Structures are given as C-alpha cells and as structure tokens.
Request: fold
Amino acid sequence: MSQSRYDIPLLRGPVPLTHLLLRRFVRPGDRVVDATCGNGKDTLLLADLVGENGQVWAFDIQAEALARTQQRLLEAGLAGRVTLLDLNHIELASQVPAPVTAVIFNLGWLPGGDRSVVTGPDSTLPALQGALQLLTPGGLLLITCYPGHEQGAVETDAVLQWSSSLAAPLFHVWRLGQQNVSASAPFCLLVQKTVSGHAA
Ligand SMILES: C[S@@+](CC[C@H](N)C(=O)[O-])C[C@H]1O[C@@H](n2cnc3c(N)ncnc32)[C@H](O)[C@@H]1O
Reply:
C-alpha cells in the first residue's frame, strides 16, 4: 500500500481500502481465503496478518499466478502459512474448513498476464455463495469489481444483484467506491456476516 509522508495509507482505488479492512479484521491465528491469488499481493498480506499459527488458502486457475504468488511468499518467508490451490474458486466451500474470518475476491484478469483468462459470473456467484457459508459471525467477504471492461461490467452487474439480494438482518452489505473518478472505475463490495446470519 503506498504511504503518504506521514505514514498514512493513501486510498487510491479499492485495493488499499481492502487492505486497510483486512488489517483491522484479521488477527493472528485466523483462517482466511484469497479466492483469486493472481500476483500474490493480497495473499502476502493475509499470510502476514494470520501469523505463524494462522492459515491462508489461496486459489487461482493459472499456473503463472500460482508461481508468482509462491515466489512472493518464499521471498517473505511466509510460504508455510499458505495452501496454494490450482483450482477454480467454485471449489472454495469444499476445500476450506469453516470458520474463516475473511475471504477476498479481486476479480478480473491477472495483471501483466493473459487477459483472456478472466473471472466470470458462472463461477464467481457460486463461489461467493460458498464463501458466505464459511464465514464466522462478523467475518468479512471483500470483492473488488471491475466494471470498466465488457466482461467485467456483466460480472459486476451480476455481483451487485447477488449482494443486494442478501437479507439485511443476516448480512451487512456495503458498496465502497471512490466518488471523484469515472463511474466505471473499480470499486469494492463488503459483506459482513452477522450473528443471525451465522445461525440462519
Ligand atoms: C485481478 S487478479 C487477482 C489479483 C491478486 N489478488 C493480487 O493481489 O495480485 C484475478 C485472478 O483471478 C484468477 N481467476 C480467474 N478466474 C478464476 C476462477 N474461476 N477461480 C480462481 N481464480 C480465477 C485469474 O487467473 C487472475 O490471476
């Protein structure tokens, strides 16, 4: 996350905002999931936050993404805390034991990679639903959406519709987007499972 000269995180775009939230919610010993590990930046932060007794599960369908993430983790000495899965995140609920504190989806394509391999609603929506099952009460699901390209716009519409349909007493759903940028700029959706959401 870029820092101002006073060591304050600069909130340019949704990714630093998701990192700020993860820093507040994820504690040592927690179990967490990165549903789209890509270049591994989110996975690395999660591996740091869960500490030596925590566990991270990180999914991607591209070998290149998994290799980049593994390299980043090895360089930081944190690879032992992360289970890297060469799997579609549709498998999330069957691969990860509940409960988890946070699940992050950074949708779209691999930055600096093959843009034809991109997340899409057919797998994203069931994967999000699976993530909700895993969350502990108070746990967070963070989704970064990219409406600025054609497939991303279709996926964003589907994710917005899905998130709006979540019952208010069971989940707190927030849309966090920078206001003074293009209307098609990326933004973040936050879903927090409530205690009643856990019991339902
Ligand atoms: C925007 S990148 C993720 C960025 C990453 N979190 C980071 O910190 O660098 C999106 C990733 O999603 C992956 N992806 C696309 N469809 C997927 C699926 N169905 N299951 C898991 N990963 C998928 C892509 O291969 C790509 O690496």
